[in-house]
Amino acid sequence: MLSGFMSAFRTPDLRKKLLFTLGIIAVYRLGVAVPTPGIDYNAVQQCLTVTGGTTGAFAILNLFTGGALQHLSIFALGIMPYITASIIVQLLRVLIPRFETLYREGAEGQAKLTQYTRYITIGFAVLQSASYVTLARTGQFFPGCSYDIVPDDSWLRIAIMIITMTAGTVLIMWFGERISERGVGNGMSLLIFTSIAAGFPKVFGIVYAAGWGTLFAFSLVTVAVIAGVVFVEQSQRRIPVQYAKRVVGRRTLGGSSTYIPLKINMAGVIPVIFAASLLSLPTVILQFSGSNPPNWVVWMRDNIASSTSPWHIGLYILLIVFFAYFYTAITFNPEEVADNMKKYGGFIPGIRPGKPTADFLDYVLSRITAAGSLYLAIVALVPTVMFAVLKLSQSIPLGGTSVLILVGVGLDTVKRIESQLEQRHYEGFLK
């Protein structure tokens, strides 16, 4: 692998792409430390000392922003508004025929969908930044902290803060697009990868403070989870496809054999993020319900929001399974695949083209998704079980999802660099 990296840096154009990507990531991490105008940075630090950091839903969002949210920096919103907008645009393809038509039009249609995603991202950024500024003004961003985070709450100052946070999200979106265009790998994924990886040293420091035995057990479980994630993410069910021979003029086309690779985890990390977001709603409702919340809100906080509650664990598993099937049905259409195979003379051995092929693909996909959804649930619940056994606080929100993102983005980036090396007749990373 080391020789592969050396070969990558010896290639001029690939070296430029790697250095460009690292430069954008460095600028992004620098912006995480720049506070938003109007925020009292010293007061924020005092509140972090008193409360120990953000909790509940804010802790999950803070993980994906690399610590920018709890410091209320210019990048406090992170890339989450863009991810939310992208998911909504994908869902609208099912509900609005116009979006599906644009998706099938090729490059021009994709450009329009990307433009719609940008507009929706700006809308979400404005709403989220206004919510964070309101929570900071009312003291609910850090419950139990009496320091005044926003000394000047005039309308002009608040408007400047909202515009600054929104502009920060737009800048992050631009960073991601530039990495995808001129760098290496998927820009948005690499920025999330960087944000999550930036918080791991602090986590290992907390575990180290609990003792060497706890650190060893924590490291052992982490390595085992990473190995399991790598194994499952690389696993696939290969459906054999045979193309019949066709005579076009004087040429004979077809007659080749290939396969359709169906991954065990077709939905990726999206089901876990959706499930965790829904289960964090009781905490958000509680923060807006005042000092004397209704009994039903207290019950949700103690049973649904508590990560060790049987209600929470059961709902978490059910939501992950549901969203795994739902998102897989959106991203993979068996009927469309069967029609394309029939159009080009392809068929699955032993299965008739057309509807029988679509039914067979749907049959296989439903059973693969069952295994994939259970795998996601196990990985997502490993941190909760580990913290309970090791008697640690919930220091790593959404730890299973963090591992999924880190491993998935890492594998994808390495594969892209390796493919570019192989195009230049160099050896890849993995021999």
TrEMBL record:
<dbReference type="GO" id="GO:0043952">
    <property type="term" value="P:protein transport by the Sec complex"/>
</dbReference>
<dbReference type="GO" id="GO:0065002">
    <property type="term" value="P:intracellular protein transmembrane transport"/>
</dbReference>
<feature type="transmembrane region" description="Helical">
    <location>
        <begin position="155"/>
        <end position="176"/>
    </location>
</feature>
<dbReference type="InterPro" id="IPR023201">
    <property type="entry name" value="SecY_dom_sf"/>
</dbReference>
<keyword id="KW-0653">Protein transport</keyword>
<dbReference type="GO" id="GO:0005886">
    <property type="term" value="C:plasma membrane"/>
</dbReference>
<keyword id="KW-0472">Membrane</keyword>
<feature type="transmembrane region" description="Helical">
    <location>
        <begin position="215"/>
        <end position="232"/>
    </location>
</feature>
<feature type="transmembrane region" description="Helical">
    <location>
        <begin position="188"/>
        <end position="209"/>
    </location>
</feature>
<dbReference type="InterPro" id="IPR002208">
    <property type="entry name" value="SecY/SEC61-alpha"/>
</dbReference>
<keyword id="KW-0811">Translocation</keyword>
<keyword id="KW-1003">Cell membrane</keyword>
<feature type="transmembrane region" description="Helical">
    <location>
        <begin position="269"/>
        <end position="290"/>
    </location>
</feature>
<feature type="transmembrane region" description="Helical">
    <location>
        <begin position="396"/>
        <end position="414"/>
    </location>
</feature>
<dbReference type="Pfam" id="PF00344">
    <property type="entry name" value="SecY"/>
</dbReference>
<dbReference type="InterPro" id="IPR030659">
    <property type="entry name" value="SecY_CS"/>
</dbReference>
<feature type="transmembrane region" description="Helical">
    <location>
        <begin position="116"/>
        <end position="135"/>
    </location>
</feature>
<keyword id="KW-0812">Transmembrane</keyword>
<comment type="similarity">
    <text>Belongs to the SecY/SEC61-alpha family.</text>
</comment>
<keyword id="KW-0813">Transport</keyword>
<dbReference type="GO" id="GO:0006605">
    <property type="term" value="P:protein targeting"/>
</dbReference>
<feature type="transmembrane region" description="Helical">
    <location>
        <begin position="72"/>
        <end position="96"/>
    </location>
</feature>
<feature type="transmembrane region" description="Helical">
    <location>
        <begin position="310"/>
        <end position="332"/>
    </location>
</feature>
<keyword id="KW-1133">Transmembrane helix</keyword>
<dbReference type="InterPro" id="IPR026593">
    <property type="entry name" value="SecY"/>
</dbReference>
<feature type="transmembrane region" description="Helical">
    <location>
        <begin position="368"/>
        <end position="390"/>
    </location>
</feature>
<comment type="subunit">
    <text>Component of the Sec protein translocase complex. Heterotrimer consisting of SecY, SecE and SecG subunits. The heterotrimers can form oligomers, although 1 heterotrimer is thought to be able to translocate proteins. Interacts with the ribosome. Interacts with SecDF, and other proteins may be involved. Interacts with SecA.</text>
</comment>
<comment type="function">
    <text>The central subunit of the protein translocation channel SecYEG. Consists of two halves formed by TMs 1-5 and 6-10. These two domains form a lateral gate at the front which open onto the bilayer between TMs 2 and 7, and are clamped together by SecE at the back. The channel is closed by both a pore ring composed of hydrophobic SecY resides and a short helix (helix 2A) on the extracellular side of the membrane which forms a plug. The plug probably moves laterally to allow the channel to open. The ring and the pore may move independently.</text>
</comment>
<protein>
    <recommendedName>
        <fullName>Protein translocase subunit SecY</fullName>
    </recommendedName>
</protein>
